[in-house]
Structures are given as structure tokens and as C-alpha cells.
Amino acid sequence: MIVSLQPDAVEAGAEVLKAGGNAVDAALACAFVQTVVDPLMCGIAGFGSAHVYLPERGVHEVLDFHGRVPAAATPDMWQDRIVGETDDGFGFVLEGAVNDLGYQSVTTPGTLKALGELHERHGTLGWPAVVEPAAGIAEEGFVVTPGVHGYWTRDVDNAPGRVKIRERLAYSEYGRRIYCDEAGQPLPVGATVRNPELAETFRRVAAGGTDIFYHGEIADRIDADMRDNGGLLRRQDLEDYRTDTTAPLWGSYRGLDLATCRPPGGGVMLIEMLNMLECFDLRAMGHNSPEYIRTLAEVMKIATSDKDEHVGDPRFVEVPLERLTDKGYATERAAFIAQGGRTHVERLALPESSGTTHLCVADARGGIVTMTHSLGMMSGVITPGLGFMYNGCMAVFDPRPGRTGSIEPGKSRFSSLCPTIVFDRGRPVLALGAPGGTQIAMGVLQAMLNFVDFGMTPQEAVLAPRFSATSDTILVTARIPRYRYRELESAGYSFNRSPYSYQIASVHAIGLDERGEPSGAADIPYGDGMALRVD
Questions:
Q1: How does pLDDT run across 168-204, given as a tens digit for each residue?
Q2: N or C: which end of the chain has fewer CB within 10 A?
Q3: Is 300 found in the same domain as 198?
């Protein structure tokens, strides 16, 4: 079974499974195609987290490949360019949007190196076999889908003060030429996009491996382009880049065990929230009832406040993992909520873009890969002749020195990515994850609660309406009736009703029954999600 947001990518992964590849092979083929057909959601110059479970090989690990601040950056380089916070108090606006768009917004990318390492360690098919499908689609062209076009033109998601998505798409000459019409607007649904320069890059990578990007010809071209345009990234940053492979971060919920990613990913938030919610009878409250919404919202606010204050790159920040994941601490916080306590969220954290994607794969041998990868706040930059867009992750660092999220050379950003596998007495029962920026952990949390507490099927769990509280305002999707939260408004809670029926991340999952039979769950209405079983 394979599931993701992009049908072309799902099909590529399914073809690899049909050819005898394992979950890692299928995930790689799927991920490469995602970078072609959803080029602002992800790319080989991006970042992410891959959770790999291969019981036949005794492998259970998480590969972290977040972007790193280039060595040329300094903590105070933008402190005099702060114009102010965004209108919603959720981020900083700098003069010239230098942190948000263009060459200075790029961090050292990790995606391509991670994909190569996954193949080297765990792949069973040849490297060209997992790269070539993406090269073929880039050359022959892909059709713009409603989900992709909707993201390109969906300005409502942009925090006030942030650069609009369509401006990122058209920032480079090549981007305007292949993704926009003659008027400079994003191509419409049904248009065919061909990216011959990306096809050529993929074929060089297929022939020469990822070293060509980090140590070879492509590294030289990246370095020259960055130097010519005032970028921070250099060839030395690429050569010095290393991924991190760790054991999963473990938690438990109502007798089930869950394995997720460590900081700088968002798995710690997921475990902290589940620990608090274990103290409540959610089923008795009723799904999306007023008390259910209040309880989850307070839990989300506590976890968000803790994350803002304590969670970052553990190589630079001392993250109190033991305390944040301690059930005793959770019990104390749950008692505060039960007594009517309310948490105030200081809006000092920087925003995360929803420009991210996810995939889940389960193979016939019991192997599972759940991987989230992204460009973050995409930079808009495409080096001439290479065809791929770079991440824009400098946008999420705090331009004020001396803070948890401040700029430091080599530092990774916090992200809400939390690719997760749930186990019942050692047997995997659910693998899931999501794109959605700040909302990722909130979407994954609610899908898990729907599955565990309310007995929903994986597909039902993914499609049930969601809400979120990552500030003092509770965001509710349009399918939650107003009467569900009217009494909370009367009690002083602030609500923001989304114009969208499907929002708060885009969760994708695979459930596994007692025989290991998979059940795919795609967040279809959110975009173009698709689940495909391979027999």
C-alpha cells in the first residue's frame, strides 16, 4: 500500500512495489516524483524526516535531514532590518523580505543526501530505478491538478506581511517560463508543465549519485549562482552537510506505543499532547463537542507554548525531553485544564509554511516508511540550468540574537514534522504523518484520537473535521457547526472560522489489521490525495 498527496507519485511508488522493490525503494520513487509534480511543496533542495521500520532487517530508525544555516550567516545580521511582526503576531517582516524570498533565504538542503543514504542503507533496487520515473515525468510533463493549482493561488494561507505563493513561483526567470502564463500568472488546472532542466539534473544524479550535488559539478554551479546573487550558501556548506540518524522517540497512549521523530521535529509535541489527553475520557465527551474542543485546544496551547520556549535544534539548544514527555508533568497540566485553566500563548514563534508533503508506504515484508519532506517557506530561487527550487527556511529563524530560534551557523530550524508509527504489543497498526506547517502535529494528533478513542477506520479518521489552537484563537474548519462552539465563545474563547472544509494539515495514513493487511487513508478533499493497494 502506498499513499500520498500526488497521484503521479503514488503510481510511481506502486510500480516500484510491483517490480519487487521494498518500502524504501517505493518511498524514494514516490518522493522524487513529488518534487516534480508538486514543486513548491517539496524538492531535492529541501528538508524533512523519514521514519523507517524494516522488521526483517531489524531496522527501526528516523533519518532527520533538516536544513542548516549556512556558515556565512551571523546571529545579528538582520536585527536592524526588522520592520515589525506580521499583522497576526505570528512572525517577523524584514526590509526587502530578505529572510522570506530570494537567495539569502536558502539554508543548506538535506533532502537529496537523505534520499541517497536511504537507498544505500536499505534499498533493494538499483539507484537509477528509483530516480528515473521522476526524470521521465519532468521531461514528458505533468498536468497541473486542482490541488497543486489551489496551493499556487491560495493567498488566504499567507500570514499578512509574508510574500504570496504566486510571487515565489514567478521569482526566477525559469519559474516564470515553465510555471506561469504570458501574463505571469500560475498556469491553470489541466495545463502541462515540462521541466527539461530538472530532468537533466535527475539523470546526472542517477548516473553520478548524490555526491554530484554535494561535492561535484552541481555543487560548483550552486556555489557560483549563490555568490553572484548575494546568497549565503556555499559549496563548503554542501560538503559539510550531514544527516542525523537516531532511534525513534517513544511514547504511549491508552496501551498503545507510538514511535515518532526527535527534535528538531515535532514528535515531542505529539507525545506531550497525548500524555495530557490520556487523563480525560474523550469518548464520553463526544467527538468535537464543546468540552472536547476546549480540552484539546488547551492541550494544544500548552504544547505550543512549551515548544516555543524549549524545543529547537538539540545541537544548539538543551531540549528538556524527559520533562516534556513525562506523564507526571502531563497529569499536572491536565488537572489545570480540568479545573478550567486557560493557557496564554505568547506569539513570538516564527511561522511555518504549509508548503510540505508526505507519503506512507507498507510493503509485503512488513516494512514501513512514513516520510515528510518540504521546502518550508520556499525561496523562489531556481539556479539556471538545474530546474529545482531551493528551500527558504531562513524565514523561520528569529532575527533577534540570543533566543531559542535565533540564527546560528549550522543550526536547524524546529519543524512540526512528526512521521509516526503506532504499535499494539509490538505489531504496527497505524503509520501516519502530514504536511501543514505549524498544524502538522495538530492534524496527526486528531487523526490518532479518531482512530484510537473513537474507533474510526483510518480513512474516517483522516477525513473527520479538525480544529487547532496554536495561539489564543481556535481555528475551526467549516464542517464544524457553529453551535458546537457557541458556548465557548460566550465563555470568552476566540474562534476563527476557516473558509475551507478540509484544513489543519493534510494527514495521510496506512492502517494494518491483525494479519498485516493494509488500509490506505488519503486526505483526498484537501488536495489530490490517493491511496493505492498493490497486490
A1: 999 999 999 999 999 999 999 999 999 999 999 999 9
A2: C
A3: no
Confidence label for 524 from pLDDT (cuts 50, 70 and 90): confident
**Is residue 226 domain-resident?**
yes
Compute the Cα dihedral for 70, 74, 75, 78 and give only its sign.
negative
Q: How many CB atoms lie within 10 A of CB 191?
A: 14
Average pLDDT score, the chain:
94
CB count within 10 Å of CB 7 equals: 18
* DSSP structure string for 465-502: --EE-SSSEEEE-TTS-GGGTHHHHHTT-EEEE-S-SS
Is 356 one of the annotated active-site residues of the chain? yes
| Strands 420-424 and 47-54, bridge-based pairing | unpaired
Give a yes or no: residue 410 inside a domain: no
Cα of 161 vs its chain's centroid, Å: 22
Q: Do 132 and 228 share a structural domain?
A: yes
Three-class DSSP category at 352: coil
pLDDT computed for residue 346 by the predictor: 76
Question: Confidence band (pLDDT; 50, 70, 90) for 90?
Answer: very low
**Residue of 260, 304, 356, 438 marked catalytic:** 356
State how far the Cα of 379 lies from the Cα of 392, in Å rounded to an integer: 4
Q: How many domains does the chain have?
A: 2
CATH code for position 327: 3.60.20.40
Same domain, 90 and 13: yes
- Tell me how far apart the terminal alpha carbons of the chain are, to the nearest angstrom: 9
State pTM to two decimals.
0.96
Sequence-distant contacts of 182-186: CB under 8 A, at least 24 apart: 186/149, 186/152, 186/153
User: 321-375, pLDDT tens digit by residue?
Assistant: 999 999 999 999 999 999 999 999 876 444 455 568 999 999 999 999 999 999 9
CA dist 175 and 184 (Å) reads 10
| Residue among 354, 258, 260, 268 nearest 311 (CA) | 268
Taking the C-alpha atoms of residue 419 and residue 434, their distance in angstroms, rounded to an integer, is 7
Q: Which three cell numbers stand for residue 226?
A: 549563490
DSSP string, 241-284: ---EEEPPEEEEETTEEEEEPPTTSSHHHHHHHHHHHTTS-HHH
